[in-house]
Amino acid sequence: MNEQHKEPSRSSSCTQWADRAWWFGAPVLIAFITWGPYWIRNLTIGRKDWLRIPALAATVFDITAYLQPIGQAMTGVVTAHLIGPFAPLMRGIALAFPGASVPEAWFVARWITTTAALWIFAWCIERWSGLGRGMSRLLSLSFWIAFILVLGMKPGFASWLFPFGVFGMVAVIIIGERLEQRRIIPAIVWSAVALASSSLYAWYFLFVAVWLGATWFLWLVKNAPRIASALAVLGSVSASAFAIMFARWVTGTPEGIVWIELTQRLSLSYTHMIFLSGSVLLTILWTALFGALYTIAGSETRRRIEVTGIAWLSLLLTFFHSPFTGHYIQNDHFRSAAAILSWFGLAVVWSVVSRGLTTHDPSAEVALSRAEGPGTGSRRARLIPYLACVISLAYVIRILAAPYAWNRDFLNVLQLTHWFALLVASWLAIRWMHAKKQLDTKTFGTIVLFGSLVIGGNAIAATYTYEFKNLPKIETLVPVFDWVKTNVPSNASLCADHGGDAYSLDDMIAAHTGRVVHVAHTTLYHRERDAAYLDRMRTVAAFYDVRSAGDEEYWRLQSSLNQFIVCEQYPVQTRLFKAFGLSQNRIDALTGCPRATIDARWKYVKDAIDQPHPDAAAFERICPYVAIPVNKNSFWHLPEGYREIPVTDDVSIFAAPS
């Protein structure tokens, strides 16, 4: 009798310890993961102020583009639109800890948001799939290790925007449930929550908006077809009217012109071309997999499969929106939503296959018998998981053989994460359809967690290897960062040499001080006219020998204002069109590549390089301070009156006479 009472007590104790580890241990562990490697390195090299992290090598892509607005937010001068609601947090850190560096402020936000990502994603998986709390937490932890651990080192979709995005996605699930219950007001409220939560990242927002619209429309078609028809007409008319008014604003106001030029710098282009990529193929396979599962599932599991299948179909439409909208908006950025949805999909598949075999659900047994049936539909359905399994296995092997993570392409973390999820899900579906004994929970959890450790562990090792390899060179610039923060007003700008080699001086000063550094790629995110940026380049070129310094290619890329990216987004179609004999101009027109504009911009800047027209007054306004590496001092021909301030043995600051 006593033995019978010990088991529940022991189980309850384990649950309590698991909860404590989840809510109290996770933040502590993530804090150590965030700061620990740098602290250990500081102790290893014997740094006295070993708790301080004054610089980052920016190993993970795009981090300098976000560190600059973080620094701006810390000064309280610039709006820092790139970081949205996190600007007040950065300002608060700066006020509470006046000596905090920009990397240290970012680390605080990273710690908060990646911890929130772990917690919120677990709740979202549980809410979406119906799995128990333990398995939901394990899947969340596995995804965190595979995805957030490395990509969370960069501000943006993989860290501080992730919790908002996944919450917005799960809100659509809740909306569907409220509609099924005919609770219209709660559904409307949750719709607002879904849109607001996902709005911080455009590619989350567009996916959620399309899926939300499909959810409402399908419910209305089923329950109120006349209202659905009326809303379809009203929505079309309203959208057309809005498009006309918006077009007038864009073309007829200075603010509108600045806005459209900013979006073009962020790679908006005009094309009806269908976007193709590995993530698009993955989305197609997931959509087909859930379609196949729906045809063979029992009534008790169909609803969850149907909802997830519609989510994948909505994501596919967002990937393929260009033929309908006539715009390319870096459609490949929807792959972040695909990675998240892949793990929701894996959770749903495990929920379906484990439910029938662990609870002996009669509907699941019916589904199995139907899968074994001779019908044409059933045979076709059985082929889809095999196809998904083979293709996903091929992608996983190809990425791992790259060599994965050690080729400096850290986006492979994202690619491998969602292909791995599809591989496991399709394999589970194959076993389920053939009525094979399904994996027990422990074995499934071990496979998922081990796979995630391979993905994330390999990538984090590569990340820190490259980070600490380049960091010593960046740390030599810390005195320069400190001088700039102390002597250059937060609302002033400066110019800097590109630097070359392991670091770019202009990028690094902008990232670590928050100051506006001209002729650096971070300025492409500022809300200004393209002409103003190009004119600054021309002004600086009159006092800097771009060609002799070896920076001509860098300047050519900067003059393109990031739009060269657009010309590289349709490699398959471009090769096909060339094989058909189409001219380059025709190919550019079809793919939306603004090559003529890019060439014209470069010609405008190159003319100033070839035949400079010095304007000392304009240069002094643009560059009241100039940071120059000593080894490139001979390439600068500053106006008279600039005084040299040696900051380090390698870098000097030159200040204008005024």
Quick structural gist:
This protein has 658 residues and is mostly helical.
Q: What is the mean pLDDT?
A: 89
Structural class: mainly alpha
Strand content: under 5%
Query: In angstroms, what is the radius of gyration?
Result: 27 Å
Total DSSP E strands: 7
Strand order of the largest sheet: 4-3-5-7-6
Could you tell me how far the N terminus lies from the C terminus, measured between alpha carbons in angstroms?
91 Å
**In one word, what is the shape?**
globular
Poorly predicted runs are: 1-6, 356-377
How would a crystallographer describe the biggest sheet? 5 strands, mixed
Helix content: 55-70%
Tally of helical runs: 26
Kindly describe this structure.
This protein is mainly alpha-helical and 658 residues long. Helices cover 68% and strands 4% of the residues. The protein has helices at residues 2-44, 63-75, 87-96, 102-129, 133-151, 162-180, 184-198, 202-223, 225-252, 254-265, 278-296, 299-319, 322-325, 335-358, 362-371, 376-400, 412-433, 441-475, 478-487, 505-513, 530-541, 552-559, 571-579, 584-591, 595-610, 616-622; strands at residues 268-270, 327-329, 493-496, 516-518, 625-629, 643-646, 651-655. The strands form two sheets. The protein has a five-stranded mixed sheet, covered by helices on one side. It has a two-stranded antiparallel sheet with strand order 1-2. The longest helix has 43 residues, at 2-44. The radius of gyration is 27 Å and the shape is globular. Mean pLDDT is 89; it is low at 1-6 and 356-377.
